[in-house]
Design a protein that fits this description.
The protein has about 450 residues and is mostly beta strands. The protein is about 5% helix and about 45% strand.
Length: about 450
Amino acid sequence: MKKLITLLAVISILNINAQQYTKLFDFNGTNGAHPAGSLMSDGTYLYGMTYGGVSDSGLIYKIKPDGTGYQRLFYFNEISGINPDGSLISDGIYLYGVTSEGGINGGGTIFKIKPDGTGFQKIFDFNGANGIYPNGPLLSDGTYLYGTTEGGGLNNDGTIFKIKADGTGYQDLFDFNITNGWGPYGAIISDGTYLYGMTNSGGANSKGVIYKIKPDGTGYQDLYDFNASSGVSPMGYLISDGTYLYGMTNNGGANGDGTIFKIKTDGTGFQNILDFNGTNGKYPSNSLISDGSYLYGITPYGGTSGKGVIFKIKPDGTGYLDLFDFTVSNGNGPLGSLISDGNYLYGATNSGGTNNDGVIFKYCMVSYCATGIEQLSDKELQLSIYPNPVNSILQISISNEQMQEIKIVDVLGNEVIKNEESKTQNGSTEIDISYLPNGVYFLQVGASTQKIIVQH
């Protein structure tokens, strides 16, 4: 029975991947086109930025997670900034972001706007000397916003900067050069003591670096210099689990198609945990996210159609799964990163969809959503369970009182509660499942099986 469940689970997962994907919205040029950044959520709306719009300078929008309620919040122009890059962040009152070009000097801007689209303020214009071509998202510590520029600064190789949320107190914290890394492309993160980030090029091998620096601009350390085998041209931002930093490179690695890596915050323990090969994805240009068990990401190329994939992988490099393959019709070439509400992954593609201007999508995470696996039973027992969904104690009612082997398996047939034997009293027994992660499981009693949903 276990082998049968495993086989059916795998087949079902393969068959319902397309059903788990939902195209929420098609961009058409006027309402936005070719989004290159990530979405942001306030729990009610998803917020994002795109190119396109009325003057083709880009716009800010919001939309509900079910794809309804699209609103254009702001159209950019030459003065406010053009070509918004990265994603927005929020302090609960304002949304903050950057444009990669435009503004008074043509080198990009920093702005803020209220979630209802009012109160737009351009708080800074880049001019080359203080940095040029910023890319986001920004990072906030409650007082300052931190970010990077791809060019400009003392050596014209990019900068790390900070600025107060009201636009005052701008500081060029660090100027990159060809030796310590140049061309940072992506955000920085913080552990409370250091800021961590990556550069797209430069360093000892001219392939990019991982660095850390204190928020006051002191203590810069080149933690790792990439090479052709470990990966080339890291993009996006790092994420941390407290011990390791995780990220991706745009190319390089065993197949030249990019890598997933991890490294300790002191620069030791670098590991290349996956080499992309085209089939499993190609040329990642964004960041990973984590649900505590898996890392999730997207690539703009590769997969069955060559249009990109959604994938997940365990932090140790095992368990890689291609969750979804993009096509032209459902959206292709995703450049931003995913976000998650615990049940769904949300993102946007740079092109494809009805108008080939990109789409907004959601993907139902297998860990949290029904898998489409039908209940299996040989009808030897009449089996009922309560409650379902369940969060702590599962009550089981069985048609007889004989000794029964009770097991719970996950959607791939892995036993998560093994060899639980219980003599039922008045046809009932109970199992504590409070320690199981949220998700879909299968209760096996003798030769009978029922699907259960664990939801804490």
